[in-house]
Amino acid sequence: MKEILEEYALVAEIISAIAVIISLIFVGLQIRNNTKATRASTFHEIAALDINILLSLGSSKESSRIISTFRGNPDSLTEEEHNHGFHLFAAEIRHVENLFLQNENKMLSKKNWESRKSLVHGMILSPGFGALLSSPNKQFFDGSFIEYAENLRKRHLKKSDDLENKD
User: Which residues cross the membrane (predicted)?
Assistant: First the structure.
């Protein structure tokens, strides 16, 4: 009788182990599907933000002119235009900061990050971003984003210097 109970206990342990393995596989599949859904949602939200920013910045000729000038040559604006341009530009920078942080937190696929990386780098390397870095308002942006931006600007400057020295 004892041997029969031991056999049943052994069979029960094997069945329990199989059930645990099946459960873990199911949980793994659920996590993978949840990750895909989260990334899809993140991508959708970023695309909606892209559209909203583009529509808002293009809402008037004056705003379009000011933001374009601020990006390329902020010092050429009047004080009032500079302040207006800075706020418009800060909204754009908040968006690229969000892209950077979403990538850092693995919420963007590699493909999605690569398609937006040039936008992020273009904004960071612009003279307008230099104006943001020299203002006290840089403290309102994420430290890791600012560090990334400052390092990118340094590397870009060094690369430009190296190219000039070759010529």
Answer: 7-29
CA dihedral sign of residues 104, 105, 111, 113: negative
List the domain range (segments joined by +) for residue 55: 2-166
Of 125, 126, 102, which Cα lies nearest the Cα of 115? Answer: 102
Chunked mean pLDDT (size 10), the chain, 167 residues: 78 82 78 72 71 75 90 93 90 89 86 90 94 90 94 90 68
**Rounded (10°) CA dihedral 22, 24, 25, 31:** 150
pTM summary value: 0.69
State the burial class of residue 74 (Cβ atoms within 10 Å of its Cβ: 0-12, 13-18, 19+).
Answer: buried
Number of domains in the chain: 1
Q: Read out DSSP for the chain? A: -HHHHHHHHHHHHHHHHHHHHHHHHHHHHHHHHHHHHHHHHHHHHHHHHHHHHHHHHTSSHHHHHHHHHHHH-GGGS-HHHHHHHHHHHHHHHHHHHHHHHHHHTT-S-HHHHHHHHHHHHHHHTSHHHHHHHTSGGGGGS-HHHHHHHHHHHHHHHHHHHHHHHH-
